[in-house]
Amino acid sequence: MINDFRFRVAVRVVLIGTTMGLLVYMINRPNMVFAAVLTVLIIAGQLMELYRFSSQTNQKLTRFLESVKYSDFISGFASDNKLGRSFRELNTAFNEVLEAFRKARSEKEEHWQYLNTVVQQVRTGILSFDDDGAIQLINANARKFIGNATLKNIGDLKAFNPGLHQALTTVESGKSTLYKSTEFQLAIQATELRLRGITVKLLTLQNIQSELQRQELEAWQNLTRVLRHEIMNSITPISSLTSTLREILDHDLVQKDEHYELKNEGAEDLREGLGTIESRSKGLIKFIDAYREYTSLPQPRMDTVYVRPLLEKVAQLMRTELKKTTIDFSFSCHPAYIVLQADEEMIEQVLINLVKNAIEASFQSPNPRVELNGFYLDDRVVIEVRDNGTGIIREAMDRIFVPFFTTKKTGRGSG
Questions:
Q1: Is residue 134 within a helix (H) or strand (E), and if so which, with residue range?
Q2: Are 321 and 237 spatial neighbours (Cβ–Cβ below 8 Å)?
Q3: Cα angle value 168/173/178 (rounded, 5°)
Q4: Using alpha carbons only, how large is the chain's radius of gyration in Å?
Q5: Strands (E), 139-267
Q6: Is 175 helix (H, G, I), strand (E, B) or coil?
Q7: Which of 102, 289, 316, 333 has the smallest CB count inside 10 Å?
Q8: Which of 185, 206, 238 is nearest to 348 (CA)?
Q9: How far is CA 224 from CA 96, 227, 230, 288, 402, in A?
């Protein structure tokens, strides 16, 4: 108890009161003037000591607040623990608060170092600057894209790369722009935020050149697959039909003396087959020529097309391939005079693809059947390819017209 701060203050107050009482007593005695003056000096000294002793708390609080203000968390409070439990508890509280501040600052610095390391390691360039152009944050990739490792103000970029400077400063918040150079193709996205009352523009710079090259390569690969698919769909029936015509020649061509004779029936089959091969070959040549300069389908050349001869030609082309299967194939056209406006060669290619797909879809079905029909429906001409295969799964129905989408393991999605 003797070391308690409040007890010490009380003792000083009592001593001052006692001394003042003694002074009053001496004033009433004429022969004690000198002693009274001395007592006054003693009282003054006691008051100064009381002020000094009691002001230690204010000094300690002032030093604590200054430590917080100037982030001086190294200093401690323990020099006056002997002044009593109150001072010891106050010192302990101050030290605990300073330790909490010290720990919070340490964690903040660790988080900053961690985030800064992440920002520096990401492959995307990150750059931010304020209204005056002063750069607040820039990572290694952004410096590489800009081409200057010591850039401090975004305005300095205008001197050596005005195009990139314009792209960075004019892109609006929430939007993106594309900047092309000899080395990079940068997709630049911007956003704005307020930090301590200052507007900061944050930009991300992503080099998409490799991605564009990959997509370009993929597009050419897809185009090659389309061409190969279309060529194979046309060459396969032509090859089969050629084999059939050779069989006709082997059976119906008869040698007499120094010349050969061909039966009328064989000659008609040969003429029809060669005409079909010629027509399909010309269509294939035109189809490939249309891709020579452009990667889009050729513009259709509309003409009047008789549906029945069109279906007969497709059936003739597919007949040899159908002979290799057990599929029951038939075609019909009712009425026989149906006509439509279309590009005959292109619609023929479409029907070949559809019939081929129908053959593949129904190949493993019991009693497989493929039909090719032409008819009117609600005053419209309809050409229908029907099979009794498994059909298209429900999940793929919404994507059947997406280029290069397929559910077949060996398909290309170009049909």
A1: none
A2: yes
A3: 45
A4: 49
A5: 176-180, 185-195, 198-207, 253-256, 259-262
A6: coil
A7: 289
A8: 238
A9: 73, 5, 10, 11, 17
Spatial contact of 386 and 370, defined as CB atoms under 8 Å apart: yes
The burial class, CB within 10 Å (0-12 / 13-18 / 19+), for 213 is exposed
Global confidence as pTM: 0.36
Distance CA 216, CA 209 (A): 10
Task: State the Cα–Cα distance between residues 10 and 6, nearest whole angstrom.
Answer: 6
Helical packing angle, 307-323 and 209-252, nearest 10°: 80
Q: pLDDT of 237-247, one tens digit each?
A: 777 878 888 88
Tens-place pLDDT, residues 97-110: 777 777 877 787 77
Separation of alpha carbons 58 and 316, rounded Å? 109
Residue 74 is encoded by which pair of tokens?
């190294």
- Choice between 86 and 22, residue whose per-residue pLDDT is larger: 22
The answer to whether residue 1 scores a pLDDT higher than 50 is no
Distance CA 47, CA 18 (A): 13
- E strands in 3-146: 125-130, 135-138
Asked if 260 and 254 touch (Cβ cutoff 8 Å), the reply is yes
Cβ–Cβ under 8 Å, residues 3 and 40: no
Strand order in the sheet with 328-334: 328-334, 369-377, 380-387
Coil, helix or strand at residue 181: coil
Please check whether residue 228 is in contact with residue 159, taking contact to mean a CB–CB distance below 8 angstroms. no
What distance in Å separates the CA atoms of residue 25 and residue 245, rounded to the nearest whole number? 151
- Give the Å distances, CA to CA, from 126 to 62, 117, 135, 190, 306: 43, 12, 11, 10, 64
Phi-psi region of 116 (alpha: psi -120 to 50; beta: other; left: phi over 0): alpha
Interval 280-316: pLDDT, tens: 787 777 777 666 544 555 678 899 999 999 999 999 8
For the chain, how many residues are written? Answer: 415
Percent with pLDDT over 70 in the chain = 77
C-beta of residue 188 within 8 angstroms of C-beta of residue 145: no
Structure tokens at 104: 């919070």
Apex 229 CA angle, 224 and 230, nearest 5: 100
Pairing of the two strands 369-377 and 380-387: antiparallel
